[in-house]
Amino acid sequence: MELKAMSQYTSLLNPAVFPHLTVVLLAIGILCTAWFFDTCDIYKELLISLVASLFMGFGVLFLLLWVDIYV
């Protein structure tokens, strides 16, 4: 297979939106983390911590992509 016959890989997301996604996802994760200390129900705390960890995880992923550390 020749190199010219292959199609070039293009990302689903434009790299110009990585900074915006980073800030938004990390902000939502921090707000969920702050809201976590307001509750006393174990199930609600587990749900909030799950949501916060998902947002923080994707926020850190886009932070790494923003600074050109491709994972």
What does the model show?
α1 packs antiparallel against α2 (42-66). The chain has two helices and no strands. The protein has 71 residues and is mainly α. The model has no long low-confidence stretch (mean pLDDT 90). Helices cover 62% and strands 0% of the residues. It has one domain. The chain has helices spanning 18-36, 42-66. It is found in: Membrane. The chain crosses the membrane at residues 16-37, 46-67. It is a multi-pass membrane protein. It holds the Pfam family Ost5. InterPro entries: TMEM258/Ost5.
**Sequence of secondary-structure elements:** HH
Largest sheet: none
Number of strands: 0
Number of helices: 2
Unreliable residue runs: none
Question: Span between N and C termini?
Answer: 27 Å
- Gross morphology: elongated
**What percentage of amino acids are in beta strands?**
under 5%
The assigned structural class equals mainly alpha
How confident is the prediction overall: mean pLDDT? 90
Radius of gyration over C-alpha positions, nearest whole angstrom:
18 Å
What is the total domain count? 1
Helix content: 55-70%
Family: Belongs to the OST5 family.
Subcellular location: Membrane
Protein name: Dolichyl-diphosphooligosaccharide-protein glycosyltransferase subunit TMEM258
Main location: membrane
